[in-house]
Amino acid sequence: MTITQLQDAIEHHFAAGSKAVGDESAMTAFLALRAALESGEVRSASPDPSSPFGWRVNAWVKQGILLGFRLGVLEELPAAGFSFVDKSTYPVRHFSAGGGVRVVPGGSSVRAGAYVASGVVCMPPMYINAGAWVDEGTMVDSHALVGSCAQIGRRVHLSAAAQIGGVLEPVNASPVVIEDDVLVGGNCGVYEGAIVRKGAVLAAGTILTRGTPVFDLVNGTILRATGELPLIIPENAVVVPGSRAINKGKGQEWGLSLYAPVIVKYRDDKTDLSTALEDLLR
Ligand SMILES: CC(C)(COP(=O)(O)OP(=O)(O)OC[C@H]1O[C@@H](n2cnc3c(N)ncnc32)[C@H](O)[C@@H]1OP(=O)(O)O)[C@@H](O)C(=O)NCCC(=O)NCCS
Residue 224 C-alpha to ligand 1 middle, in angstroms? Predict the structure, then answer.
């Protein structure tokens, strides 16, 4: 099946709604898409210089991932190779498919349909969801999440507890993109289709969403998402978590301030030193 045929098949079966359930050709199309995502042949978003923000979202891929949820039934997944010892009074709860609760396996797991390039390191516990792309030499550190369809470039460091949002729920149109050589510090959260350009640094605790204005002290500008464009962090920006005073109404009267990510500088030698990756870990 060519990619165009696969796209047609996915769009057709997605549009069929519940009629796709039990249709063997729908399952065949989904499994072909899942394999193509895992091999990297198909992506949920791809670099595209002709797009206003440099990335093209392949909406049909997200439809295919959702189709997989529609077609799947609950089944028990045996956990081979693990050995655990704990107090006999508190064994691990057992769930069966009939209970209707989904427990996704593993302290760390990578879901089928995610592309993970050779040389990626995954530290437990972490999770990479369907449709994600994680490129060569990237470190996914403990408690990090790579949400559905998120695109992570080469040599990215996703530090401990960094959360990269997905597109499936809540529903987001375009995935988060973290380009090559970005450092995402500990406890950061990047959500709602934000794009972090090459070489940028998000200091620990930085949170980015569509609604978060980012204050660029170097250029004297305020960066925001617009109707057409997501929030875009420029190449090599160093973003740290800050705050801004509320200067009207009750907020001012009560002396409140709001969270505000701030670009304090653009990458320099000191930043390179602070963010150098350890080759021995890769
Ligand atoms: C951003 C970071 C890389 C520092 O980069 P740097 O280029 O060395 O930054 P500098 O030290 O030159 O700081 C530049 C300015 O930002 C401020 N700043 C730096 N880091 C900051 C932070 N995390 N929060 C708030 N302000 C910060 C500095 O005080 C300085 O401002 P000043 O000139 O007014 O004093 C570092 O703070 C950071 O967050 N590293 C990630 C740590 C991490 O999450 N590790 C995960 C391991 S799993």
Answer: 22
